[in-house]
Amino acid sequence: MKIWTSVSIWMVVTLAGTSMAFADVVVSEAWVRGTVKGQTETGAFMTLKSTETTQLIQASSPLAKMVQVHEMRMDKGMMMMRPVKALDITANAPVMLKPGSYHVMLMGLDKPLSKGEHVPLQLTFSTKAGVKTTVDVQAEVHDLTQANPPMKMDGMNMPK
Ligand SMILES: [Cu+2]
Questions:
Q1: Residue 137 CA: distances (Å) to CA of 26, 38, 114, 118, 125
Q2: How far is CA 154 from CA 46, 140, 151, 157, 158, in A?
Q3: In 3-state terms, what secondary structure has residue 17?
């Protein structure tokens, strides 16, 4: 009877330590490309890093009617983009969402987004075992013309 008890405890500990691991996701350098009057779509870009292998499965924003994770690539000389169901994030391997690649697509914007404003984003991640993590991000709006985030220079503190 005593042996059985200790085996049960051991099994529970093992489960908690492996397949049910909680993914601690850090979102950094989040920014949104600014829009002009009448434009209802834009992209959000950021770097995602997780302590456990997980997937970005959902994104939302109170400023957009619909938000999707998109993939962009060249196909026969044309830039194509399409929604992806889930974006894989391998443990401790940062994934960059950037122009011309993966991005979070904001659709159905009510108003233009100007430089310096912040766009609230909620990102939902799920591991293969179904353990979910939700991260809230404030993405800063950059100039419409800006293709890339400001360069990071070593040894210099760039204002955020
Ligand atoms: Cu897109």
A1: 10, 25, 17, 9, 13
A2: 19, 22, 10, 8, 10
A3: helix
Question: For residue 19, what is the DSSP state?
Answer: T
CA of 103 to the centre of ligand 1 (A): 6
Split the chain (160 residues) into runs of 10 and give each run's mean pLDDT. Answer: 48 48 89 94 96 96 97 86 95 94 96 95 94 95 68 43
The domain ranges of the chain are: 2-142
State the CATH class of domain 2-142: mainly beta
Which residues lie near ion ligand 1 (Cβ < 5 Å)?
70, 81, 105
The model's pTM is 0.77
How far is the centre of ligand 1, averaged over its atoms, from the C-alpha of 31 (Å)? 14
Pairing of strands 95-97, 41-50: antiparallel
Query: Are the CB atoms for 142 and 99 separated by under 8 Å?
Result: no
